[in-house]
Amino acid sequence: MAKIIAFYNNKGGVAKTTTATNIAGVLSLENKKTLLIDGGGLNGKNNSFLQ
């Protein structure tokens, strides 16, 4: 069954993208399928390639 994990905070600079990227990386290392979407204004991870 799919699970959704969301990191939300209106304030910028609170490490939302960093935290989400690290969690996705760990799940990926555990052979879990992951999809990371950064909905922030800078779209930091949408332009990155994650395996």
Q: Can you walk me through this structure?
A:
The chain has 51 residues and is an all-alpha fold. The chain has one domain. The protein has one helix and no strands. It has one helix spanning 16-29. The longest helix has 14 residues, at 16-29. It is elongated and about 30 Å long. The two termini are 21 Å apart.
Series of secondary-structure elements, N-terminal to C-terminal: H
Percent range for β-strand residues: under 5%
Question: How many strands, which pairing sense, and closed or not: the largest β-sheet?
Answer: none
Anisotropy-based shape: elongated
What Rg, in angstroms, do the CA atoms define? 11 Å
Secondary-structure-derived class:
mainly alpha
**Unreliable parts:** none
Q: Output mean pLDDT.
A: 79
Cα distance spanning the termini: 21 Å
Helix content: 25-40%
Q: Give the count of helical stretches.
A: 1
Number of distinct beta strands? 0
User: What's the structural domain tally?
Assistant: 1
Essential attributes:
1 helix, 51 residues, single chain
Q: What does this entry show, briefly?
A:
The protein has 51 residues and is an all-alpha fold.
Topology:
Elements: H1 16-29
